[in-house]
Amino acid sequence: MGIRDKDPIRMKTDVLIIGGGLAGTNAAMGAAEAGASVVVMDKGKIERSGDVGGGVDHFMAYLETGPDWDTRDAFLGYVEKVGRGTNHISNIESLVCDELPAAIERMARIGNPLTQPDGTYYRTASMGQPGPYWINFNGKLLKPRLAKAVRRLGCKVLSRVMTVDLLLDDGHVAGAVGFHVHTGRFFVIESKATVIATGNTNRIFENPRGNPFNTWLCPYNTGDGQVMALRAGAALANMEYMRLTMMPKGFAAPGFNALTGMGGRFMNSLGEYYMEKAHPLGNRAPRYACVLHSQEEIRAGRGPIFIDCRGLSDKDLDHLETTLGYDKDTLPDYLAQRGEDLRKHPVEIMVSEGMQGGPSECNGSGIKIDGNAAATVPGLFAAGDSADHNRCVHGAVTGGYRAGKSAARRAKALNRAPEEAIGITRERMERFMAPLHRGSGYPYQQIEDTIRKVMSEHVGMARTDLGLRTGLLKLARIEPHLDDIKVNDLHELMRARETRSILTVGKLMASAALFRTESRNKPYHYRLDYPETDDANWSGLVVVRQQGDGFDCALERVAYRSPQEA
Amino acid sequence: MPMTFDYEKCDGCGKCSALCPGDVIYMRGERGKKLPYNRYVDECWHCGSCRQDCPKAAIRVAFPPDMLCI
Q1: Partner residue facing B42 (CB), from A47, A213, A215
Q2: Counting Cβ atoms within 10 Å, is residue A466 exposed (0-12), middle (13-18) or buried (19+)?
Q3: pLDDT at residue A361, as a whole number
């Protein structure tokens, strides 16, 4: 292959952004507009990479138009209510609220305004919102437009470069090592500040549709950033929550938010509208409540379940038909090829695969950040779904930009120059490449399937002390076999690296879930042996750190003002 | 067969391959006559990016039976 003979490509920059999805591109803009030199490194190409690469149709915001619900205070009340003790409101204020007006302006500035062609906002409410916080918009070209803005600002963009690990210099994060998925060439990027924006972890639980890549969020997001940060000494938080959602049967497409937002009704096979009985907010209940009650319908034998849009007005149905493909470009094709027609009959839906993705729409899980998006290790920042206080489209756009700004400020203030030639040794590169040179071994898929099986059986929707301990034991049993993976090409080498991250995230989820002896945002964290939510003792974040070969878990309390059962 | 390529329309520009977020689409054929194909069929996310950006409108999506028939 000849790869080993080539020296790595070396670069120096003020700010390195790992992952060029929605959060990463906004971070690049934030850093570059603050005057920093920027390198963006992505496994794909930033024009179409990440969760919203193919498009997106919603952005959560209050707009201060007058009504009580449309204010910063009401929004924060909502964040607190759905987060239920899993976030620090002060962080959401600085990461989201303080950045929101500039974020909305920036969307227009890059040529992708949140408004309709006539200049108005199209707003809908669902998921427990006190008013229509979802702004419906056409984001099919959002990523290409962001990419154009990033390149125009002079950021250096590395496509098809997977980040292998962070560089450390005297306890500071000082850059990262990357690997080109097509050429096998290594990159050593030295930076004064580094932003991780690599998304959540998918392909970690068994997929109810069979193919593990048929996921709600991007299947190429595999928790690589969280694992790198952990290894560098950073704290992670909220890792116990297994996120789930509702989606069309057979295709893990997002976009069904829009259906309930506009008046779609959850229906079981007896024709009963079960959410209207189960929850005071009915079909517009928070997402975890919709998932919980849908799962109960199926468990009770009242499946299949459907979403019924027949009662919607023609005007709303016309709007839906136009916008459904904004969130998932191929969803209208899927419904048509399947013979579905929202106007004529209820469409079958299902509960999604599990994922590491946080407890609510307003805050996530992953790298623990403060109000400036700084991680607990100097030189490291995080944004988007890989961070604990960032989540969803609005969070990636606001929090991403904040992370970029903060990283630029750190780069400017840093007096210490990084040591020369830090980091990667030939041995480390060879270890990374080893699966390619192994004479025999298992395909990465076989190891990954085993992880998913264990995660689903023991770390999934119903958890117990003994079950979680059994899961951890089995994950530990799988771990040595990571070194038995054999790959046939560089693409598979990338996948095998992802498998490694998925296993570590699995262990983190199981460890945090074992530690939290209560249930919260069921079914995201549902302990059968501790089925109640215990705000007196457990309102707060489970913070996880690497300790030797294991993890240390500790509770960080959250002042949680208004406990409400949902 | 997630994404299908109409080789009558395709001019082999390689844009789909360059931007596929999953590194699923590769080019093959003789120099100057390379055409796209799905090298890692099971790994397509059906995001539709390739179809949206194809300058020749040569890409269609055909969902497999394990998605359409369950």
Answers
A1: A213
A2: exposed
A3: 86
